[in-house]
Design brief:
The chain is α+β, with helices and mostly antiparallel strands. 38% of the residues lie in helices and 14% in strands. It has helices spanning 10-23, 28-31, 35-45, 50-63, 67-72, 75-82, 89-104, 113-116, 124-133, 144-154, 163-176, 182-195, 215-218, 276-285, and strands at residues 235-245, 250-254, 265-266, 269-271, 290-302, 306-317, 332-335. Strand 5 and strand 6 (306-317) form a beta hairpin.
Amino acid sequence: MNTAVNTISEETLRRLLAWYDTAHRDLPWRREPTPYHVWISEIMLQQTRVEAVKPYYARFLQALPGISDLAACPEEQLLKLWEGLGYYNRVRNLQKAAMVVCEQYGGELPDTYEELLKLPGIGAYTAGAISSISFGRPVPAVDGNVLRILSRLRADDRLISDEKVREAVRKELLEVMPKDRPGDLNQAMMELGATVCAPNGAPACGECPWREECLAHLSGMEAEYPKKEAKAGRKTEDLTVLVLQDADRIALHKRPGKGLLAGLYELPNISGHLSREEVRKYLDSQGLKVVRITPLPEAKHIFTHKEWHMIGYRIRVDELEQGPKGSDSNAWIYVEPAETQERYPIPSAFEAYAGAFGLRRGKET
């Protein structure tokens, strides 16, 4: 166990910057690293792969080219632009922060780490990224990539999930940040962790600028680092998804304004796995005349703390005039499939059933 963690030398960081100068990827947010662009990209990149983010980033900026546009965007349009990226609180916090920026900072993001931290949805990492990349402030941006590469470099046994460890690494980097290239250093560490010293599979140590000094590599123990706590098991939920159609329309249901997938539109669904006959009886009780029920493939969607295990049925009804009996919060709405292109943000949890009725999700544009 390496209880005495080596400090990070300036020479080590210089080697990393030299590598970054020739090996970094050409990413759209790096071409024009304005504060707004860096902010949007960093929020999108949380929990999401770079290649998946690229089309969303382009579409988002085309629709909302500035902070004032983001602040004024209607919620359903905003959620539609984010549709498929998941973790929708990210975009809700983006808009909340944009409103604050317009009200308190004249529509321009503040240029200091401390002021950025005051905005909704901006934590230490994002504040460090924006302030260093866009404003040249010598502050670190410590994310999972940074913690992983430094853990392997120094054979650091500390748990990277421990907030005290993250803060200790941040303070250490703060002492060695180059004042002339702080944004490049932060991006170089992110780049090394994303492309070479990757989280899944064996790292590409032969391509690493630190291969001759990395303690984990020199001891052949790359897979032992970083140290993490065992993850708690996810809760599983069984759902029966109903793809309900009449001649022209489909049924959707708007989820509550709080909680999982808040405010998004979903396909009607019932807790548990129901048989075809059970589904027919349920729809009969709701006043719907079923013409045909066809089973659809099983599907699974993984959230952070739970999994949905879904079965589905495509159901043709005589006419979509009825819906679930009860409060307005349970009401269904009926729309033409083409309307789902520009309206009605639908979470990716239901993507497996999209083709059953021609649903067109925003990311396809």
